[in-house]
Amino acid sequence: MQALLSFEQAPPIAAPFRFFLTAPLFSGLAGLLLVVNGGEIFASRWTPGALAVTHLLTVGFMLQVMLGAMIQILPVVAGANLRQPLRVAGIVHVLMLLGTLALAGGFLGVSEAAFPLAISFLGGGVIYFLLMAGLSLRGVPSTSATIAGIKRALLALLIAVMLGFSLTGGLEGRWPIPLLEVTRVHVAWGLGAWATGLLSAVAYVVVPMFQITPAYPAWFSRTFGIFLLAAVAAASLAVFGAVEWLAALLESTVVWLAAGYCATTLWLQSRSKRARPDTTQRFWRLAMLCGLVACALWGMVRLLPTLADDVAWPLLFGVLVLVGGFMSVISGMLYKIVPFLVWLHLQNRGQSRVVAPNMKAVLAEGKMTRHLYAHCATCCLLLLAVVWPSLLTRPAGLAMLVASAFLAHNLISAAGVYRHHAALVDARLAELAAGGAG
């Protein structure tokens, strides 16, 4: 896989970094909302606070990082160069920031204009990104499972966003739609086809590369994304067609496919050539284990229908998937991608004449470990808060604030290392040029 990467085509470091640096702001806002609202958030998955927290994490944190990563991945992995990447990143980033704040404000009832603004900003940002990504991918053959998976994930993102926009209009009463059914399908496309699809496509490269594991089995990487997309699409048709038994079967298929991905990744990690796992691997293992527990919970609810009426299980499932699963794996990837990008860009800036600092010098292991502990505490407290909301919701929110602060500090610190060493590299090159001229 590594031989397929084209690092010389990497966009300027500011393009992906702006997304990475602001993502912790939104997980921090989610934690603040938990502290302010307290246990009432966990009264139901449909409370305004729960919906706001969910979208601060999915759109504000997850989607921010994923779009930033895509700006980096498209040229390096797929050979698909975005036109004017800094301009694309700047426009998309601003629109995503404003749109996420407006969306959370809409759920909280801050203003009647919040939802229309959210549709405008988020719609403009995502559609513009998808248009530019589509143009860059035009004519790029699907020569690897990663490239094919990225293309499928972008299609899934478009569908998930369109469903989300229809939901905001439905909530405002602009048009009549079956809210529960559309929400059900929106979640399947957003967390299943888009988030899990993109995660798996990227993992085919980054897990063997950064965690020194064997490659994913060829049959798995070739078929997983296809089956995942087909199952989500078929489940959506069954939901809208009111064929409940078929919809439940297909949704269970999506869940067990995700369980298969988590189990396969854990199996590969167990065969890593590293003498001992680093913080990145621990984040990944936490994510995969939470994913498996979430899938097991889903299975229990299907086997014991009386659990389906309990308001707690969707909240437990959501915490396991969003915080324990996606936030963990995204944090783990950031702690490999960010130091690597700092090293890569400094190496390129040095023109093979000035050596870049080692990746471990960019971000110390101890700093990442502190974030890991705070994040684990957040996951545990949130799961317990679902059961004892009045007692533990605020402590869980405080833990999320602390974890977000650790992540923000670490990413800002890495950016500071880049700025400091970039100045040193430029000064050293100037010295060498002056010496050569003399």
Provide an overview of this structure.
By secondary structure, the protein is mainly alpha-helical. The protein has 13 helices and no strands. The chain has a single domain, classed as Cytochrome c oxidase-like, subunit I domain (Cytochrome C Oxidase, Chain A), CATH 1.20.210.10. The chain is 80% helix and 0% strand. The mean pLDDT is 91. Keywords: Membrane, Transmembrane, Transmembrane helix.
Question: Descriptors for this entry?
Answer:
438 residues; mainly alpha; Cytochrome C Oxidase, Chain A; 80% helix; globular
In DSSP terms (H or I, runs of 4 or more residues), the helix count works out at 13
Secondary-structure element order, N to C: HHHHHHHHHHHHH
CATH architecture: Up-down Bundle
Rg on CA atoms, Å: 22 Å
Keywords: Membrane, Transmembrane, Transmembrane helix
Short description:
The protein has 438 residues and is an all-alpha fold. 80% of the residues lie in helices and 0% in strands. The longest helix has 49 residues, at 389-437.
Produce the secondary structure layout.
Layout: H1 14-37, H2 48-77, H3 85-107, H4 114-137, H5 145-171, H6 179-211, H7 218-240, H8 244-270, H9 279-303, H10 312-349, H11 359-362, H12 365-387, H13 389-437
Helix pairs in contact: 1-2, 1-3, 1-13, 2-3, 2-4, 2-10, 3-4, 4-5, 5-6, 5-7, 6-7, 6-8, 7-8, 8-9, 9-10, 9-12, 10-12, 10-13, 12-13
Transmembrane segments: 12-36, 56-76, 88-108, 114-137, 149-167, 187-207, 219-239, 245-263, 283-301, 313-335, 372-391, 397-418
Keywords: Membrane, Transmembrane, Transmembrane helix
